[in-house]
């Protein structure tokens, strides 16, 4: 199985190296002859064997480094959570001895995201392409952690779906549809989409700057 793996600092992502292959061919021939004169006339036959190798290639990127020039940098996705104190939405201020109406319920959080919409591209002639996510580094701030599945990702195009992000380890894979705009035929896959990352938890967390990393892998049989 050929694979291309792509880290994403999370919150973020990078590109995948390009696996290109070539075309090779070889031929083998025999020989034959026929005589003249009083011998019966015959037609010589020569066998010629051909061997043609068409290798697989797989290109996968998230962020910059678009085809045909792979490379680029790892993308950074950021989420800033701001608390609001009930019973009325009151944003606390950084100060001492400041009175605020609070009914004692847990605060709610609004999320401001940046760098969370990333272009994704897959190209391959290797058959069914699948994509899955792996938690490389957990979301950690000191001794505190947040499960990575608090982050979700959605795709702008169903033909290049985004895989589910697991809490830890490697998640389940999703299949990329074959063909696509610019593809020669259904044997070649060329798909593009935008993936949007979001933080989907209203659970209160210990304050801190949490950082972690995801990697996304594209694979063919």
Percent of residues in beta strands: 35-45%
Q: Describe the sheet with the most strands.
A: 5 strands, antiparallel
Quickly count the domains: 2
Number of strands: 13
Rg, rounded, reads 28 Å
Number of helices: 0
Subunit organisation of the chains: single chain
* Average pLDDT: 83
Itemize the secondary structure elements and their pairings.
Layout: E1 2-9, E2 23-29, E3 48-54, E4 58-62, E5 78-84, E6 108-114, E7 117-124, E8 129-141, E9 144-146, E10 151-155, E11 174-176, E12 189-199, E13 211-220
Antiparallel strand pairs: 1-13, 2-3, 4-7, 5-6, 7-12, 8-9, 8-11, 8-13, 10-12
Brief digest:
This protein has 221 residues and is mainly beta. The chain contains no helices and 13 strands. A hairpin with a 2-residue loop joins strand 8 and strand 9.
Keywords:
4-stranded antiparallel β-sheet; 0% helix; single chain; mainly beta; 2 domains; 221 residues
Provide a descriptive summary of the structure in words.
The protein is an all-beta fold and 221 residues long. The protein has two domains: 154 residues; 37 residues, no CATH class. The termini are close together. A hairpin with a 2-residue loop joins strand 8 and strand 9. The strands form four sheets. Strands 1, 8, 9, 11 and 13 form a five-stranded antiparallel sheet that branches. It has a four-stranded antiparallel sheet with strand order 4-7-12-10, with no helix packed on it. It has a two-stranded antiparallel ribbon with strand order 2-3. It is rod-shaped. About 8% of the residues have low confidence. 0% of the residues lie in helices and 43% in strands. This is WxL domain-containing protein. Keywords: Signal.
């Amino acid at each position: 199985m050929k694979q291309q793996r792509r880290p994403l600092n999370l919150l973020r992502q990078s590109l995948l190296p390009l696996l290109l292959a070539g075309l090779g061919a070889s031929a083998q021939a025999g020989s034959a002859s026929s005589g003249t004169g009083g011998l019966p006339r015959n037609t010589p036959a020569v066998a010629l064997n051909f061997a043609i190798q068409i290798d697989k290639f797989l290109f996968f990127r998230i962020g910059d480094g678009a085809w045909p020039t792979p490379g680029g940098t790892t993308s950074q996705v950021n989420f800033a959570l701001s608390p609001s104190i009930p019973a009325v939405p009151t944003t606390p201020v950084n100060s001492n001895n400041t009175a605020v109406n609070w009914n004692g319920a847990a605060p709610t959080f609004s999320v401001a995201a940046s760098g969370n919409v990333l272009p994704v591209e897959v190209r391959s002639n290797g058959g069914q392409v699948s994509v899955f996510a792996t938690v490389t580094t957990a979301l950690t701030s000191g001794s505190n952690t947040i499960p990575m599945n608090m982050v979700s990702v959605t795709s702008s195009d169903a033909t290049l779906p985004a895989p589910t992000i697991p809490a830890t380890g490697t998640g389940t894979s999703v299949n990329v549809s074959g063909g696509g705009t610019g593809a020669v035929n259904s044997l070649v896959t060329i798909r593009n989409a935008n993936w949007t990352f979001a933080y989907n938890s209203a659970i209160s967390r210990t304050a801190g700057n949490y950082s972690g990393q995801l990697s996304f892998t594209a694979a063919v049989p």
